[in-house]
Amino acid sequence: RNSVTINLDATALPEEGELEKQPNDFKTISLILTLNSGMGLTGKNKKKNEVELFHGNIETVCSSLEELKKENFGLYWDYFAPYFIEMKNKGYTETFSYIVYASSGEKYVKKWIDKNNELVNSFYDWSSGYEWEK
After folding, report:
1. Residue 56 near residue 40 (C-beta atoms within 8 A)
2. Which tens digits make up the pLDDT trace of 14-25?
């Protein structure tokens, strides 16, 4: 029997009757990421390696941040979310994913980084030049 069970913490869901948005509320992002992670265990995702699964998740998170940015606020939404949104819009999520796994010791990660050294350097140039206060 193939099945996936997803458990959600009740605090990850909006409170009944909660009308006012709270600062740094990432409940929706958390829910999306939880559901997306469950998808990593099914269908064509079964054949993906850890970096590819992480890449899919980071793409989803960045897209969700962009979609939900207008209706959220707080330090994390105002300061950190734009970085990840711009990273996605610049096409760096795959590169970011491999950099995250660079210390894993996996041969396929080292091979990808060596083969895509220009992209890695481009990402680092973009990231180090990113304007945090816009």
Report:
1. yes
2. 566 555 677 777
